[in-house]
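Everyone, study these two lines:
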Amino acid sequence: HTGDIGYIDENGLLFIKDRKKRVIIRPDGHNVFPSTIENVIRRHPAVKNCAVIKSKATESISGSWAKAVVVLKDEYLGQEDLVEEELKALCLENLPERDVAQFYSFVDSLPYTGSGKVDTLKLEQQEELAKEGIQIRVLDMHTIKPIDREAIVKAAKETKKIVTVEDHNIIGGLGSAVCEVLAEEYPTKVTRMGIH
């Protein structure tokens, strides 16, 4: 089983609609497919990229709402309120009302997996931590050489603290490389974690 959800049309052609684990089940039990909303949002000329994630409903014991996380093209930065209203209208024109995103947020960039897909799980984790008053920024450093020095320094300036997490011993890995960059360019407290 691949975990994909799709359908076969009248001509016998298979169409993949979304991943089963990404389906958002609203508090009323209705299933919302994130890729359907993403496809509509990406049509807007201001949108560089987007991802639709689950945002747990606070008003009920189960279910989630759809939240669109949007990256704008540079020339539209500062126009978030206007673009949000246009995105809401665009979605309502092209989707049933219960299939649109209830919330929108705008970010500089989206996190990616090692295979180049948007890491929606990281976005959902950020969302949950934010509800607890913990603001984080996630950077995916898929290579150490060359390391993205600019992104590390920018994150340090914005957050004032860095936590690195890597899938092995911390000696000589990502944490060490980040410490080297920050020691030279912007001294910042760093906590290194290795997960075995």
